[in-house]
Write a structure and sequence with these properties.
With 476 residues, the protein is of the alpha+beta class. The chain contains ten helices and 22 strands. The strands form four sheets. It has an eight-stranded mixed sheet with strand order 1-2-5-6-7-8-4-3, with no helix packed on it. The chain has a seven-stranded mixed beta barrel with strand order 9-10-11-12-15-17-16. Strand 16 and strand 17 form a beta hairpin. Helix 1 packs antiparallel against helix 5 and helix 8 runs antiparallel to helix 10.
């Protein structure tokens, strides 16, 4: 296993006129410099006393520091002067910091081998990674989203599993560029809210199972070029959900991604099933490794939703789909108003054979009054459904409507209370604003002039949306 955990040390050089002059050795993981933008970012994790330092040594070069102490050091700009006289604007970050170095252009496929340095509050490491572009429509954006795998060796022979920023221990990660999201908050807020709303129904059997991914902010450099603020996220996979592994040719747990609207994933139609294909009806298969009959169970369930008589639907739906999960999912999606997450940008999974299906959310940037492009859509008075929810509302099995309304009232007292949501929005915004993340993002991408107005829009939209939903459920 090839990696280095670095402990930064402080070196006192001496005293002169009762003033202490000190030099700090900065590890390669703890600082990054972009010469083209004349900015440097240094991690506070291994440098909590940086304001007491006058010079630093970084990669065998000496720099002078001029630290601004008017405010907390993460909330103001500082000056870094290279020994040959070049000046940089220095930012001290409290976020994890990634630095990738690769000799080849990063493309959609295949992954390019890179070296990567990383630091958070617990680890500082330099290791190897394979990195590629990620996304479909987002590939046209200037700021790219990335998928990367960590490796122990430069050939990528052995995967390396690390717990990034206190998330799960894994080797496969996503860096979401957030470029289409005006104030870079919507995905972060949405995933956080979902994980507070919902827990897996089988948690007693799988105590480490998650209902959705965790997502944390980070900063990224690639080949010494500052790429800005990113959202480091886990993958939705078998490991996250703790669904059962297949046994030989016997399928147990299943995981499918709704990747496009082609009828089945939104429960609007039943396309012809072709088991030799890896996609069907808008779904892509994620687990298990395809067998001779990868679509049989999901096809049969979709057929049941669309074509069963009302009596059979009422008797069987609760054993086929976890109703508590569906209720939480659609209350969540409607709170955010995520119109692109009804059959696309959604996962459907099953813990084990003969167990019910359930939903896992994904790709939540087009929320809180915007769509996937980042364009504002001020609509607040439309209730979102798909074919499965419409059938439940029509047939109302086991007092489904009453359960839906009751759950709404419970959530409105806590996680979906107006003050709770708007406070989360403001706290996340103020963290990025005060720590100059919007300033750095604007320097790199030039799109961050009106963040306070964008926050105000999000908050006013949220209030109107919640009032509409209160009225909708009261009259349902």
């Amino acid at each position: 296993m090839k990696f280095n955990i670095v402990i930064v040390c402080f070196l006192t050089l001496g005293l002169q006129s009762s003033i202490m002059y000190s030099q700090q050795v900065i590890s390669e993981q703890a600082m990054a410099i972009d010469d083209s933008l004349s900015i440097a970012v240094i991690s506070i994790y291994t440098n909590p006393d940086i304001q007491e330092v006058t010079t630093i040594s970084y990669k065998n070069t000496i720099y002078e520091l001029d630290i601004n102490t008017e405010k907390p050091i993460t909330e103001v700009k500082h000056t870094l002067i290279q020994n040959e006289g070049k000046k940089y604007t220095l930012y001290v970050t409290e976020l994890p910091l990634f630095q990738f170095h690769t000799e080849k252009t990063i493309v959609n496929e295949p992954k390019r081998m890179t070296s990567v340095s990383y630091i958070d509050k617990h680890i500082a490491i330099t290791t190897h990674a394979g990195i590629e572009l990620r996304g479909s429509s987002s590939l046209v954006f200037q700021k790219k989203t990335y998928d990367f795998n960590l490796y122990e060796d430069e050939k990528g022979t052995f995967n390396q599993h690390l717990a990034m920023d206190e998330m799960r221990t894994d080797d496969d990660w996503i860096l979401d560029a957030l470029y289409n999201e005006p104030i870079r908050l919507r995905s972060y807020l949405s995933f956080n809210i979902w994980n507070h709303i919902h827990k897996p129904y089988y948690l007693d059997r799988e105590p480490k199972a998650k209902a959705g991914i965790e997502a944390h902010f980070t900063e990224v450099f690639i080949n010494n070029s500052y790429k800005g603020l990113y959202l480091l996220t886990e993958q939705v996979d078998r490991k996250l959900l703790k669904i059962k592994k297949e046994q030989g040719d016997t399928i147990r747990g299943e995981l499918f991604q709704g990747a496009r609207y082609l009828g089945a994933s939104s429960f609007d139609s039943l396309p012809e099933k072709k088991n030799y294909l890896l996609s069907w009806g808008g779904y892509d298969i994620k687990y298990p490794v395809p067998t001779n009959t990868p679509w049989d169970s999901l096809y049969e369930f979709t057929d049941f939703v669309l074509h069963s008589d009302d009596l059979d639907f009422e008797k069987e739906i609760a054993s086929r789909f976890n109703i508590d999960n569906l209720i939480d999912y659609f209350l969540f999606i409607n709170t955010l108003r995520a119109p692109d997450n009804l059959g696309k940008n959604i996962y459907i999974a099953r813990y084990d054979i003969e167990e019910p299906y359930f939903y896992v959310p994904w790709d939540l940037d087009g929320t809180f009054g915007t769509i996937y492009s980042g364009k504002r859509v001020e609509t607040t008075d439309v209730f979102l459904t798909n074919g499965l929810l419409r059938r439940l509302l029509l047939v109302n099995p086991n007092n489904f409507i009453s359960r839906l309304k009751k759950r709404w009232l419970v959530l409105r007292k806590d996680i979906l209370h107006t003050i709770s949501i708007t406070s989360r929005q403001r706290m996340a915004y103020e963290r990025l604003y005060k720590n100059l993340l919007y300033e750095r993002e604007g320097i790199r991408w030039g799109r961050m002039d009106n963040t306070s107005e964008e926050l105000e829009y999000m908050q006013e939209w949220t209030k109107k949306r919640l009032l509409f939903l209160d009225q909708y459920f009261a009259g349902l």
